[in-house]
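Q: Structure tokens for this one, please.
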Amino acid sequence: MAVTTGQIISVLETLAPVEIQADWDNSGLQAGSRQQPVEKILLTLDVTAEVLQYAADNGYGLVVAHHPFLFHKLSRVDLETPAGRILELALANKISIYAMHTNLDMVQGGVSDVLAQLLGLEDVEVLDPQKGHYFKLAVFVPLTHLDQVRQALGDAGAGWIGNYSHCTFAAPGTGTFLPREGANPWMGEPGKLEQVEEARLETLVPSYRLEAVLAAMRSAHPYEEIAYDLFPLAMDASFGLGRLGVLPQTMNLGALAQKVARVLHCAQLRICGDVDKPVRRVALCGGSGGRYVDLARRRGADVLITGDIDHHQALDAQQTGLALIDPGHYASEYPVLYKAEAHLRSNLPGEIVITRYPGSTNPMRWQSCTFCEGEGD
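A: Here is the predicted structure, written as tokens:
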């Protein structure tokens, strides 16, 4: 049975819901059709003409990227531009393109969490939590089906608090109902008042999971008509950009830099600070997180690990005593492709081919240079 682009997108969005992307972002389906059958999926950080040509030459029907190649609305499609060439290749070869950008940055288990895991950080929390949109769901369930409904709600994404899932509260009580003519009650009979031992089951539901959670509740609940309440809440989300954690033991900055280079396969990286400085509390942000220099310092970090740190951000860090390690944008994000690959393999049929682009889309290269004495400043 063929799997469609739309079905694959549904699987990807259980990992990184598109609804939590930043307002300025353009994650989601960028080209192609949700009805297109797919036999091979190609994962990449960036969408380039070279990536699309590789996909076309090797029969890939879907390219899943971290960075969207379309950030802004197109006013024209010029085939002489990079975006135009990519669209030409995609449409001519029936290749769909899907991007998971800031939603994959923010979500639990996303870009920065993968980096934190590689470094062995403990007590990990969100560095910059986003404002969340949540509901408290309260549903009345007969005791005979309490465990079944509780499990269904949690499996659908309700009850996440920090690193804990399936969080609920239940209070017992007695429910009454009188089935009218035409009703088909789970218990009792029309015209007779019934009493049943119930529990008021409460849980937390993020707005982007609400539809799925309510569908799971209806499927697991035995009643023909279900009594439930939804209360909007104002609270910080359990997702956001960057992570903050602690190393299992203190090490010096130089040793941590070596570890970063090793786990990210970096030939070189940049550091700011004394290599002998002891560090343990670590802030990090996969990709470009130099703007978090001040927040990392205020939250008590000894070191910030991120890419694309500019001169002035490094000066600010140096003046305030915050150490920096910059492995580069590409290296700090690439490991999330392994997470996306594993997620797809766990949730799609085994005959679907899933691979990472074998080349590099990193536009930056390190160049060793030598200068004659007195040449240059």
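A few notes: The longest helix spans residues 253-264. Residues 111-127+242-332 form a domain with the Udp-n-acetylmuramoylalanyl-d-glutamate--2,6- Diaminopimelate Ligase; Chain: A, domain 1 fold (CATH 3.40.1390.30).
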